[in-house]
Amino acid sequence: MELEADRERCIGAGMCALTAPEVFDQDLEDGRVVLLDPSPPTRHQAGARRAVDVCPSGAITLVSRDGSPGDPSGATPGGIA
Ligand code: SF4
Asked: Which of 36, 41, 42, 81 has most Cβ atoms within 10 angstroms of its Cβ?
């Protein structure tokens, strides 16, 4: 699991830091999200997913880079002759 946080989009609601304090914090200056751990360990992943769900601005994104059969390079598997 990898996470990304868009500070421009964040409105400082703080739901992420409340939901998964091991993964998210808030900037003391502007209240916007601070991503403490972009690759949280398994024990913190459920909380991180919940934080993505409860964020009212959609500022946190879950980036899945493992276990996906798709190839982002655009290569097409197989071929029709
Ligand atoms: S829950 Fe979303 S809007 Fe609120 S502080 Fe976290 S990232 Fe920002």
From this structure: 36
